[in-house]
Design a protein that fits this description.
Helix content is about 40%, strand content about 10%. It has about 600 residues and is α/β, with parallel strands linked by helices. Helix 1 runs antiparallel to helix 3.
Length: about 600
Amino acid sequence: MMIGGWRFDLTALLYLNSLYLLLILLPLPCHIRNHKIYMEVAKWAFWIPNILGFIVNCMDMVYVRFTDRRTTCTIFTEFQNDNNIANIIVQSMVQYWYVTLFALVIIVVLVVCTRKRWHMSKPKNNWVYYVIESVLMLITVYFVVIGIRGGFGKYTRPITISNALQYTNAPQETAILLNTPFSLMKSLENTTYVHPNYFTNEDAEQIMSPIHIDEIEENGRLGKTNVVILILESFSKEYIGFYNHHLDSGQYTGYTPFLDSLLAQSITYAHSFASGRKSIDAMPSVLSSIPMLIEPYIVTPYSTNAVSSIADCLKKEGYATAFFHGAPNGSMGFQAYARSAGFERYYGMDEYDGIEAFDGTWAIWDEEFLQYYARTMDTLSQPFMTAVFTASSHHPFRVPKQFENKFPKGNLPIHQCVGYTDYALREFFAYAKQQDWYENTLFVVTADHTNAQTHSEYTNAKGLFEVPIAFYSPRWNQGELREKGAISQTDIMPSVLAYLGYSKPYFAFGEDALTKNKQHPYAVCYNHPVYQLITDSLLLQFDGKDICSVYDYITDPTLQRNIASEPDTEALAMYLRAYIQQYIYRLTTNQLTVDNNGSESR
């Protein structure tokens, strides 16, 4: 990893200093190179790129722990609509003061040590001077190009982020040896989605098709059952006692007593996974069954594609639809996506009356906003389909003053926030039970992504994606924990539509998980820079060309033994290749709905 880190650092340094090197090596007359203005320009050509590169690298000293990947250029699109981003940055600089101080010290040292101007002596022979300087420049340019490409030889391809895999044992380790300037510059190349050509498009369609036509239940509940989807910020499955009675020698209780009781009455899954690692991955995955592969869909150039969603499908059947998020309207691009996905109404901080409930950083506190969510549903005509995205279990991990020391703090800052949001959920359901729409509602509970975790089985390539997915109806007599197969957030939309008996074709990368006979009982996710397919026993990792790792996580929960050479996984790999090809092809050709799909008449 150290050798790999040097390789990527060298490439980044050469990128950052290419203009400076050119300025000091150009074979110009001495009076030009010694001119005060020229030397000042060269100095700033050195300072600005290196200082900016160091700053973004320091930012990822903090940010990587939440994303397990280096920041790319999508970060600028991700937060472009957040008006409070300056406040968030300032708070982070204060909270992580030691990183801020470290950056300032290094920047000061860099400037102090390089502020003195150099001076070139006048050559005795101009002809010899120009020849030597020209040869020196050409040699330097050659080696700079070699360094930027990452090696010698005509068959050497320019070094990319995926090359980091050859120095690591697990995908999340690539964030350690990579550097942020390199990741930012490589993501500028805009070659993120290249058609892989694993199959013909027709053959890929036969292996894996996102067009759903033949799964219609004859006696559905369409027109009768409301749908409420709760997306909980950062609720890793590790925090929930219901799933983890085996941890800490059977002594683990978790931080969610109410959610534990709700899950006991729900249909939920032992192997359930998020489709991404960021909040902006969740909306497309949960509501539109569009996973995050390579980059978050919302920040790709294809985010203006036509998409469908649970709301879009049910709106056509007479459902009232609304999306709720307590952050400032426009934050994270949620409002824009809700609109494109067909939600009729959006309720954010602008609609909430009572700014005193603002947490000072992100959004309205969960207790107040979930009560507002429930009260607003009282005003909607039935049937309705709504979704809410909570916010309080988010960095900087604070709870309202009146709740300080009320919830177990555990050994991570987020734990008391999880306890607070669990309390807010309890209050939400207590209110909902008194309303006439409650008995006729299907509730779906999931999380957007995981957060910091402590147990070894949750800190590896599988555990980093484990979130709860549960379906609950007040009319069900008992719950069920299903251990067969694996599901992901993209299975929520097909499951809801199948439960309701939706009778029209629709587009979704997932499948109905409420049936006990899921055709492809897998979860697919992207763990930068590899694709992952997860079954109820195996984790398969694919680098875009070959299977690089296979783990039996039942017998090897910490993923120490790569058994890629042992099990027959070709059928799984074929499905994953078809899945990837379908995603890239349909994303880049604007075929993410049935209406925009040429196969709709099959």
